Amino acid sequence: MSEDRVPTAEYRAELTDLVELLQAVSPEPKFIWASMTQVHEKGVKGRLDAELNPKVVERNQMAAEIMERRNIPINDLYDTLSSKLHLVRGDRWHWESPAYVTMATKVSGSISESLTAEKGYD
User: Fold this and answer.
1) By C-alpha distance, which of 61, 77, 73 is closest to 31?
2) Do 82 and 46 meet the contact criterion of CB atoms below 8 Å apart?
3) Distance from C-alpha of 77 to C-alpha of 105, rounded to nearest angstrom
4) What was the pLDDT predicted at 64?
5) Is it the case that residue 3 has pLDDT exceeding 80?
6) How many other CB atoms are found less than 10 A from the CB of residue 75?
7) 42 vs 26, 48, 62, 81, CA distance in Å?
8) Cα separation of the two ends of the chain
């Protein structure tokens, strides 16, 4: 996540435009937003990157506000992995396999829950 790609000042507007576009061209599908996960300090397990991770937190908050206004459920992967920082791979961005299993379980569970609710099995 580099400031050169999408400056924080533009993130909210660009994400809002993207969500509006997706909903306009696909009004029937269900959307589930997944938050970004932590950025870690390179080579140090369990320590968050002091420069980039606050930007992740800020952007996750912006995204949550946008999704909530549009009634789009959120998979909070950031929170899901908050207690699993010992599973970082050490390259700032990636995780060890058990963390990906945790994320997959969270994502598949929310998809299953959404499909079950849609079919009226609640």
Assistant:
1) 73
2) no
3) 11
4) 98
5) no
6) 17
7) 39, 9, 26, 17
8) 39
| Residue 45 structure tokens | 């397990």
Q: Are 77 and 60 within 8 A, CB to CB?
A: no
Residue-wise pLDDT for 72-119, tens only, equals 999 999 999 999 999 999 899 999 999 999 999 999 999 998 888 777
Q: Across the strands, what pairs with 95?
A: 88
pTM here is: 0.87
φ and ψ of 26, to 5 deg: -140, 70
Nearest to 33 by CA among 3, 62, 4, 1: 62
3 state SS of 56:
helix
